[in-house]
Amino acid sequence: MGDETEEELEKAQRMNNLAIKYATENQFTETLKYLEFYKLQIEGKIFDFKSPYDLDIVANNEQFFEKEFLKLVGSDSINEIKQAEELVDHCIYYSTKIQCELDSAFFSKKRKYVASAISDYYDRVGMQENLQNMTDQAIIASLDTLNPTGVFKWHGKILIINEFIPVYTSPNLKKGEAIMDADKKLIKYIKDLDVIKLSDDYKISGTYFIPYRVNGEKQEFVFNYETKKWQYMMCYTNIQNSFLTKELSKYMPPVLFKEEDDM
CB–CB of 109/103 below 8 Å? Predict the structure, then answer.
């Protein structure tokens, strides 16, 4: 495969899918192996066209990747830090389709640095202090008073309740992982909702943990012994802009806490 256009690749993809169907029906085992390999190559090339990053370069050259990655992950802008996460995700996907000089294991290790950078950023902007100013009093929840996991509206804001299994044990990295997990859950929810379209350059800001009360202490996470996962609550105050955030919240069920009146 050389310098095909995106249209040529999509045409090749359709033809290859038909060939796979024919080879499967007729049990052409060796031919099928080649066609499946070719399928991955096409998928990788098409993804490269749609990606904002030149994956054929950054996924095959450690120097180029590190230059781009360090510029993003070391930024003072949360949006650029999250672009570092996107860069890693795109490289991982691309490297699973096309054999690259840098494999998915190399890129997966970079997630740690993104998680740390995200956590450090929110520590700098004072995550919990801003939460105190958002309501008359910070809401402290415990596991038995929680709503099911999901996406909710709360005080005109958007709240994510979710559970995950962190890769890292470090509290700082764990917080970063949770923010990344919540971002992905939120964006998927908005896309599945399909009532409001985010702009290509959308920005998420004002992200806060809502703490739990565990043995009289405030913690960002609580362990759910039934699911064997860590649960967190993440509040978003601004998705693209305040108007869009308010509009999105209209399509979300309210979250109810023991300490609050019905919203």
Answer: no
